[in-house]
Amino acid sequence: MSMVKPSLAALFFLLVGVFMVQPVIAQDSPEAATDTTQPAVTADSLSDQQETDTVGSGAGTMYPMSPERRAKLISYSRFVNIWRFVGFFVTLGLMALILFTGFSARMRDWAGVVKKKFLVVWLFLVLFLIVDYLLNFPFHFYRGFIVENQYGFLNQSFGEWFAEDMLSLLVTAIVGVVPLWFLYWVIARSRKWWLWASVAAMPFAVFMIVIAPVVIAPLFNKYEPLKDKTLEAEILTLAEKAGIKGSDVFQVDASKQSSKINAYVTGLFATKRIVLYDTMIDNFESDEILFVMGHEMGHYLMHHIWKGLALAIILITLALWITSRTISPVIDRFKHRFKFDRLEDIASLPLIIIFVTILSFLMEPISNGVSRYMERQSDKFAMDISRVSAESAEIAFDKLSVFNLSDPDPHPVIEFWFYSHPALSKRINFVRNYKPSGT
Ligand SMILES: [Zn+2]
């Protein structure tokens, strides 16, 4: 669950150095985490128009894959790939629109009715989030509601879906003001603002990752100990073997939003935990679940959240540095249309977002390359610790592909650029040929 993420909020958090590590690293979809742009909380459905082959309604018919399901998989994967670019250009287009119409400057003027600088930033943020949400709504609705419903993933009515969007916006408006205020405070005071902003992002990111599973995620879903006591006993045995406290394993009612299947590691320090979707419990055999749990335990024990966070901070520092070196000429060139002439003007936020969006798009192969390496390490760990048969591991991957409609065999360029996990076909090959150490 990477809660706080309507499209723009995601970028915003990246910008101030935060949240992206959650979906990319922590929220570990064994499915090709192809979908990091799509907030987990916004998958949903017209509950009165359920398709017959969704998890809830007809699990038995879903696996193994029928020819119809394969056709769906191909068209959904194609759509997801196209949308990577559509989403990117929509963001750039909307930000450009807000800038070139002078609307960003107008929002700054409106926000200027309050006296205190902190409140000006807050009011601007609220206005900006609302305007961005409205402009982006047709795209967001099509992607997150229409298409997800078309493919039978949605388990929410429009009202429920929309209510979660509003909750996300509210959380973003509350949590986002501090880093945004700090960013503009430091831009006004130091030419090395890119460095100070990145340094400050570290404790803030750690704080957010610590509180996310206990404060934010429960706003959207219910987290509880495993209900299936037999399964729980098996997982606890495995956890003990791996040296993890069993109380750190939770199940979540992810089926509330979507029929997609997943599991992930999240939190830090006392809030560090493994989360298992109820959709997985309903559709996987126990050996398949144990393999996935072994994989998550690998992330947990190899401190992949910390490593992902460290990488994210490095990339953010780089992105902000490049931005600081290249953004001023753009402001100079268009200042009459933008109606602001300095970066320290809060109206420049959409322009900063444009820079960071482009730079993070270009850097995706780096973060995804590192992520794929860690995923492979976790697959290896899972084979060593769970000791399930290679066949169970293969079926687990195969089911993820079938249930989530993720392409097991993407084009190599797509994998290289966008996949945070190795292609499922490669993971299947790996477990098939792997000899667990110690045997
Ligand atoms: Zn993983």
What's the average pLDDT? Answer: 88
Tell how many strands the DSSP assignment holds: 4
Placed side by side, the strands forming the largest sheet appear as 1-2-4-3
Q: Helicity range of the residues?
A: 55-70%
Can you tell me the number of structural domains? 1
Helix count, DSSP H or I runs of 4 or more residues:
17
Helix and strand pattern: HHHHHHHHHEHEEEHHHHHHH
Largest sheet: 4 strands, mixed
Compounds present? zinc ion
Strand content: under 5%
Instruction: Outline the low-pLDDT stretches.
Output: 1-12, 14-59
Secondary-structure content class: mainly alpha
What general form does the structure show? globular
Distance between the termini: 37 Å
Radius of gyration: 22 Å
